[in-house]
Queue: 3 jobs
Job 1
Amino acid sequence: MASEEAFLRTAPARPAPWRDPKIRAVAYQVAFVGGLVALVAFVIHNLLGNIGRQNIATGFGFLGREAAFGIGESLIEYSPADTYARAFLVGLTNTLHVAALGVIFATILGTVMGLARLSSNWLVAKLARVYVETFRNVPLTLQLFFWWGLLNKMSPGPRQAWQILPDVFVSNRGIVYPVPFANPAYWWVAAAFLIGLVVTIGFGRWAKRRQIATGQQLPTGWVALALIVGLPLVVFFGFGAPLALDVPSLQGFNFSGGSSMSPEFAALLLGLVIYTGTFIAEIVRAGILAVSWGQSEAAMALGLRSGQRMRLVVLPQALRVIVPPLTSQYLSLTKNSSLAVIIGFPDLVSIANTTMNQTGQAIEGIAMIMAVYLFLSLSISFAMNIYNRAVAMVER
Amino acid sequence: MHNLIRRLIGLAAVVLVVTFAAANPALAGATLDKIKAAGGFSCGVPTGIPGYAQPDAQGVYAGFDVDICKALSAAIFGDPGKVKYVPLTAQQRFTALQSGEVDILSNNTTWTMQRDTELGLNFGPVVFYDGQGFLVPKKLGVKSAKELNGATICVQPGTTTELNLADYFRANKMDYKPVVIEKIDEVYAAFFAGRCDVMTGDSSALAAQRIGRASNPDDYMILPERISKEPLAPVVRHGDDQWHDIVDWVVFALIQAEEMGITKANVDDMLKSDDPAIKRMLGVTPGMGKALFGTDDYEKWAYNEIKLIGNYGEIFDRNIGAGSPMKLERGLNNLWTKGGLLYAMPIR
C-alpha cells in the first residue's frame, strides 16, 4: 500500500525530449518551416545564378519600354508606341470584358436551361437535357475551335457581307453594327437609370415593411417599371431623343464606323457561355430539387400563386445550395477565358506570352499572369461569399 | 478543365527546369559531353513550314531546318539519325532552349541584337537570308504594301515579323488590324479561309506556304516590298563556347563544301584530292577535328556531313530550291562567288 502511494506521489518522470509530444510538435514545425525556407532560398539563389550565367535580363524594367507590337482589339486606346505595361492592361481589360459578359450570359442561359430541365413539357425538358449532355461532355478547347471555324469559314468576306438587319453586317471580320454617336444625353439617361434603381430598392423595402406591419400590398412591380424604365425614357425624350447613328460602311478592306465584335471574341464568348451554361443548368436544377416538395405544397396550401411560390419559397432555399458551386463556375469561366490564346483573341495570357517572348523575361511575365488571375479569382470569391452570406439560411 | 492551370503548370515546369537544370554550371564542353553520353541531341524545329520542317506521312521530319540538325548529327555521330526533333512555336522556342529542353534551335529564327544579348542566346552562322513580305489574294487587287492601309493582317506572335509589321505601318502612317495566332497551321488556315486580307511572314516561308497550303497557289501573290532583313540562323544557349563553335563550323563546312565543289556524290573521290584545303577539311590531313571537338576521333566530321547530307547547295535545292515544289531562287543565299552572301570562314 505504502509503496503504491509512493509510486503515485512521485511526479511522472519527464520523458526524454525526443519523446515529449510538445517538444516534438514544435521541432517538426520548425523543421518544416526551415526546410521550406531553405528550399525557396535555394530555388531563388539557383534561379538567379542560372539567369546570371546565361546573361538573361531580369526585373520589371521592361514594363516601361515601348511594346512595338500591334493588338487587334482593345477597349482602351492602344498603339504600338505604347509601353508593355499598357499592352498588359489592354490584355487585362479584354480578359475582364469577356469574363464579365460570359458570367452574365452563362448565368442567364444556365438558369433558363436548368428550369427547362425541370419543365413538365416533355419536349422542352428533353431539349434542355440534350443541350446539357452534349456541351458539358465535349472539351471546351474543341468547342472554341468549332465556333471559331464556323464563324470564319461559313461567313463571307467583308465585301460580300451578309446584311442580317438594316446596317448590321456579318462577315469573317466579325459582326458590325451601328451605334449612336456619343452624346451627353446618354450620361443623364444612365444617371436616371441608376437613380431609378436605387429608389426602387428603397421603395421595395419600405413596401415590405409596410406589408408586414399592415398586411396591405403595394403594386411594387409597376412602380419598379415606372422608375427603372420610365424615368430614363423621360430623360431621353426630354433631351429630344438624340439618335444619330454611326452607321458602318464598307471602305477599302473593311467596314469603318459603327462598332464591331470580332469572330475571335464572339467564338470565345459563345464557347465559354455555352460550356459553362451546362454546369450552371445542372447546379440550378440540383438547387431547386434540393427544396423538398413539401415546401411547395405548403406554399400552395397558403394560396401563393406559382410565381410567388418560386420567388418567395423555393428560390430563397434553393439559392443556399446554388451559390457555392456557382462561384466555382464563375472562377472556371474566368480562368478558361485564357484559352483565348488558341483562337487568337488578345487576352491577358496571349499578350503576356508575346511580351515574354519579345523581352525573354518569362519568369516576370508568368508571375504577373498568376498574380492577376489570383486577384481576379479571390475578388470573385469574395463578392460571391458576401452574396452567399446574404442568401444563406439564418439558423434560429 | 482548368486550362490556365495546365498552361501555367507547363510554363512553371520550364521555369523549374531553368531553376534546377544547370545547378551544375554549364561549363564549356558540357553540352557535347551530355549528348555523347545520351547518344543524341534534341533540335527545336518549326511546327510546320513546307520545305523547312514538316513531318511526312510517316511522321518523319524533313526539310531545310531539319537538314541542318542532321548535318550536326552526322558530324558528331557519323549518323544523321541521332536527333530528336521537338516542334516548337515561335513563342515556345526560346524558353525551350534556355531551359535545356532542346540543345539547338533550327527554327527559322531571326538573328537580332536583343535575342543575342538579353535572351541569353548565341547565334550560329546565317543559313538563310530572308526578308519580310506580304502574301495577298490576287482578287484583293493590291499591287504594293503601301496600299494596305486598314487591312486585317494575319501574323504569328513571338516573331520579329510581328514587330516589323508594327514598325512598317507606323513609319508609313497606316493602320492595320492584327490577327495573332500562335500555331502556324492555324494562322495559315485562317488566312486561306479569308479571315485576313493579308498574311505576313518571311517571304521564303510565305512562298513555301503558298505552294504547300493554298488550294490554288495562283490565286495568291507576294507583294514586291521586303520590309525587313531576316537573317535566319541556328541558335544555342549562352555558356558553352565549344558547342557554339561546333554549330558554327558544321554550317561553315556545308557552305565551304559547295564552294569547293564537294558533293554527296563525289566526296569519296575528293578524299584523293591534292588540294591541301580539301585534305584539311575532309580530315585526310588531321587536325581540324581535334581542334573543334578536342579529341582525335572526329577527323571525319566534315566528310560525314557531306557524305550523308550533302553540301549547302544540295540541301537548298532538295528542300526549297529548284529540286522542290517551292522552286525558290538562290538570290542572296548563293555563294559570295556567285553574287550571294554566303561566305564561309576559312577552315584551317
Note: Chain A touches chain B through 61 residues (CB under 8 Å).
Job 2
Amino acid sequence: MIKHMWMAVLAALFAAATAQAQETIKIGVNEPLTGAVAASGTYVTNGARIGAEVVNSRGGVLGKKIELVIEDNKSNPKEAVDAAEKLILRDKVPVMIGAWSSTFTLAVMPKLIEYGVPLIVETSSSGKITVSGNPWVFRISPTSEMEAVAFLEKLSSFNPPIKKADFLSVNNDFGRGAAAEFAKALASKGVKIGVTETMTPEATDLSAQLAAIKKSDGDALFVTTGVEQVTLVIKQAAEQRLTQRIITTGGAFPDQMIANAGPAGMASYHILFFSPWSADKAKYPDVAKVYVDEWNKKKWEFAGLTEGFRGYDAVMTAVEAIKIAGKAEPDAIRQALWKTKLHGVNGDIAFIKQGPEGKESGQSVPNVYIVMLKEGKVTQP
Amino acid sequence: MDQILQHGLNGVVLGGTYALLGIGLTLVFGIMRVVNFTHGELYAFGAYLAYLFVALLHLDFFLSIALAALAGFALGAVIELVLLRPLRTDDIDTVMLVMIGAWIALQNGEQFVWGGVAKLVPSPFAQEPLVFGPVSVLPLRLFVLAVTLVLLVAFYLLIDRTRLGMAMRATFQDRDTAALMGVDVKGIYTLTFALGSSLAAIAGALLGPIFLVNPTMGNLVGLKAFAIVILGGLGNITGATIGGFVLALVEEFGAGYLSSEYRDAFGFVVIIAVLALRPQGFFALKGRVG
C-alpha cells in the first residue's frame, strides 16, 4: 500500500514538474559574465532580467511566462560558441540574445546557420555582422559606422573644436572597426587623423600607448574598449597629463569613476545609446521610465543603466517577435522579426535589410547620446 | 629623451613589486622545491583584501595593506599545512598537481565571492600626478616604490642577519644536515611558504589600487613571477630582486619602443632566452639564498 502511495506521489510530482516546465518560453542569453569585459556583460544581463520580469508581470507571451536561460561566455569567443551550442542543443531555446563583443558574435554566427536559430545582437558594432549574408542575425545596436555618422552631428558641441584626433582601441573587430569608421567620418569633416594605438583586451598597463599618443599632440583621443579598460585609460591618461580630450565610443561608461573621481578639472566624454541622467529626453520616456524604475528598485549600480537597456530592449524585441509569430519556433520567430516594430528604451526598433540579396540580416537604426563626466558628475557637454 | 626617463621611472616602480613577487616564488622553490602555482592567486587575494578593507569596510589604507599582508601569510600557512605537509615525501609532480588544483580552487572561489566584474580600489592619495620636469608620476606609485624598497631591505636583513634567516639558508643548502643540526625543517617550510605568500599578497594590495581587481589578475602575474625566478636562478633571492627590476624595465621599454601590444609577452620572451642561453639563471654564480 505504502509502496504504491510513494509511486503515486512521485508520479504526481513528476507530472507537475514537467507541466510546470512546459509553461515557459525560453530565451537564450549569451553574455560575458566573467573575464575582461564582465562589467558590460553583467549590466546587459541584468537589463534582460528586468525585461523578462516586466513581460511576465504583464502576463507573459502567448499565455506563457518567458524564462531566460543565461550562459556565461567568459569574454572568450570559443566559450561564446560553446555557450551558444549549449543553449541551442541542451536548452532548445527558439531565440538567443548576445554575444556582446563583435568578436564573440562573429564566432557564434556560423552556428546560427547550422542549427537555424535567430540571434538578436544587442551590443556588437562591427559592420561585418550584418553584411556577411547570415539571415539569422538581427541587430538592434548601431554599427560603428552609424555611431560615427551620428557623432558627426554632435561635433559642433565641442569647444574648442576638434582639429586632430588620435585613437586608442582594443585590438579586435570591435575596436579596430570603430577606429576605422570614426577616422573615416572625422576625416570627411576635415579633422586631421593622428596616431592609432591598440591594446590587448586584458592589458592593464597602457602607459606605453598613452606615451605615444601624448607625443602626437592631437586634441581629442577616441577610446574604444570595455568599461574596465576605459577606466584604466582615463586614470593613466590623467597620470601622464595627456592634453587630448578623451571621448569613448561604443557605449562604455566608467561607472566606478563616479564614486572615485579623477583629478580636478579633468573631463571625459562618452557616446552612449541611453543616458539615464537624461532619461526624460529619451525618444519614448514612458518606456525608459519603466526600465529605469525597475533597475533602481533592485538598487543596482545607476551607471549600469547605460548598458543594461540593451538586454531590456533585446528581450522586448524577442517577445514581440514571438507574439507576431504565434509560436516559440525558431524559423517562425526569424520571419516575425522582419515584421517587428516596437518602442524601445533607446528609441524605435525595426529591422532594415542589410547584406547580400537573399541572405539579408536585420539592422535597426538607433539613437546616439553624448554625456560628459567631470569630477564624478555627469552632464550634457 | 624625456620618454626614456618616464619609462625608466615606470619600470622601477613596477619592478619593485615584481621583485617582491619573484622573491616570494624563488624562496618557495629554492627552499622547498615546490612549484608554487598558487602564487598568482595570493597576489589576487591580496588585491581583493585591499578592496574589501578600503572600499567596503572603509579602513585606513595603510592599515589595509598591513592586514592584507598578514592575511596572505595566514593563507599561505594554511595551504602549506593542509596541502603540502601531508605530501612531503611525494615527488615533485604530485605536488605540482596539487598546487594547480589549489590554484583553480582559489581563483574560482574568488570569482564566486566577488563576481566577475572588475573592482576599483580607492586610493587616499591625490589623483593629480606629481611632476618632476618631463616626468610625471602619481603619488600612489611613489608610495608603492617606497614600500617595496623598505620590504626588500627588511627581507634581506631577515635572511642575512637573523637566526631565522640562517636556519632558512641552512635548510636550503642541505635539508638533512640542517635537520641534524636541530633546525625545525617542517616549521621552516611552513614559514617559508607563508612568507612567500605574504609577499605576493602585499604586491597585490599595492598594485590593486593602480590597476583594477578581477578574479583572473593572478594568472599573468603568476607566470611573470616564474619568468623572474628563471631569470634570476631558482632559489636565488638577489637574482629574483634584480630579475624583477629587469623584467619590468624590459616590459616598459619594449612596450614603449618595440610594440605596446605585446607588452605582456616580453616576460615569456625572457624565459625562452634565458632557458636557451643560460638555463641556470644569470646570477647562479653569485650564490644561492642570501
Note: Residues 146-272 of chain A form a domain with the Rossmann fold fold (CATH 3.40.50.2300).
Job 3
Amino acid sequence: MSTPAVKSTARNEHRLHPLPARIMHWINVAAIFIMIGSGWKIYDDDVIFGWLHFPDSIVIGKWAQYGLQWHFFGMWIFVINGLVYLTYGIATGRFRQKLFPLSVSEILATVGDALRFRLAHDDLTHYNAVQKLLYLGIMAIGILIVLSGLALWKPVQFSELAALFYNFQTTRLIHFLCMAAIVVFLLVHVALALLVPQSLLAMLTGGPVVDDKPGRAVEPAVEIEATH
Amino acid sequence: MPLRTRTLSIFRPRKPVDQSVLAENRALVDDINRRNVLRGAVSLGALALLTGCDVSENDSVQKALRAVSSWNDRVQAAIFRPNHLAPTFSAAAVVKPPRFNAYYDIEDVKPVDGATWTLQLAGRIEDKRPWTAQQIYGLPEQELIIRHICVEGWDYIGQWSGPNLRDFLQRIGADLTAKYVYFICADDFIESIDMATALHPQTILATKYANDIIADPFGYPLRLRTSTKLGYKNAKWIKAIEVSNDFRETFWSKQGFNWFAGI
C-alpha cells in the first residue's frame, strides 16, 4: 500500500481537493457542529416527539438564550460558507467533473457491488454513483434546511416562502428531518472516512495530484486493498 | 446460572473456574457495562462538544454572541416590510383560551384592577394625559386573527381586538419619527419595539380576546399584540407607554434573548 503522492512542489489547483475546497469543508464542519448542537437545545424547549429529548450534556448552550445565540451566529457561517462553496463548485466545474454524469443504472450497479462487497476504492479521485448521489443529496438537504430555517425565522417577512412549508409546525418538522438526514449522512461519511483514512488525509493535505480535465489521477493513485 | 457439565472438553480444567467472584461483583460489572461506558462515551462527546462547562457563559464569548445578536437586530430591521401583512385566519381556527406564558406561572399572576388602572404616557408624546380603561375601551377597535409564535417553538391562532397602535400614537401626538416605543408593565416587565413595527397595520393595543374582555392571565386591561414579533415582545398588563430615541435593554434582551425578535 503506497502513501498518497504528495509533493510540495505540486500546485494546489491540481490537487484532488484544492485548498479553497478544503478550507470550506472544515469551516462547514465547525458550522454544522454549532448548528446541530444549538439546534438540539432549541428543540428541547418544545419537543416535536415526546420520546425525544436531547440530553443537556450533548447540546450547545446551557440556557435557551445561549442555544439561540449560537444558532443565529452559526447560521451566518453555514449560509455564507455554503453559498461560496456552491458558487465555487459550479464556477470551477468541480461539481460537473466530480458528480456528473449520474445515471440510474450506474447507481443500481454500484448498490449491487456494495451489497456483494465488491466496491473498489482504488481511485480516490473518482466517486462512484452512490457517492455522487449522496453528495448531491446532502447539498439538496443543505439548501432545504436553510430555506426551512428562513421560513421559521421569518414566517411573516418571508410568508411566501413559509407558505411552501404549509404551517409553522410542519416547517419545524421539515427543518428537524433535514437535521436528522445530515446526522445520518455524517455517521456514514465519518465512518467511511475512517475506514479509508487516505480520503480523510486528502481532505487535510489536498490528496493526489489530478489532471484537470478527466478528473483522474495523474500520479500513481492511492491503492487501497478492497478488503471489506 | 448453572455451570455446564455435559460437554467438557479435554482442554478444560477439571475443576470449573470459581465463578463466585463474578456473582459477587455482578452489580459492579453490570454497572460498568451499562452505565459508565455509556456515560463515559457521552461525556467524551460532551467534552468534544465543549459543553462540559458552557463556554457561552464566558464573558468574551457572551460579548461576541451578543454583538452578533445586535447585528441580527439590524438585519431584521433592514428586511422588515412595513406594510406586508401576516397571514390571517378564520374565527374557526381560534384557540380558546389563549396559551399562557410569562416569566412565572399562571397561578402567580397578580390581576390588575381595571377601575383604578390608568395608562401613563411618557417621552416624545405631546399629550401625556393618562387614560382610564373606560376611555381606552371606547376607542375604535381593530380585530386580528393571527398566529402567535413563541420563541420556544409552539404556536396557536388567536383572535385579538383593540385600538390600532398607530392610530393611538397619532391621537396622543407621539413623535412617529422616534426610534422606539416602550411598554412598562404592572409585573415589573418592560419591553420595547421599533417604530416601524409600532406603525405596522397589524399592531394593536389589545383589550379583547375572542370578542370577550381579555382575562387576567393574558394581560387585562391592556396588552400589546403585533403580528410581526415573537410572543415575548407582546407586553401584557401595560401601565405606561414611552416613546424614545434611546435604546435601553429590555426584560428579555437583558437575559440574552434577541431584542428585535421579528418574525
Note: The interface with chain A takes residues 42-43, 45-46, 49-52, 54, 56-57, 64-66, 68-69, 72, 76, 79-81, 84, 86-87, 147, 149-155, 227-228, 255-258, 262-263 of chain B (CB under 8 Å).
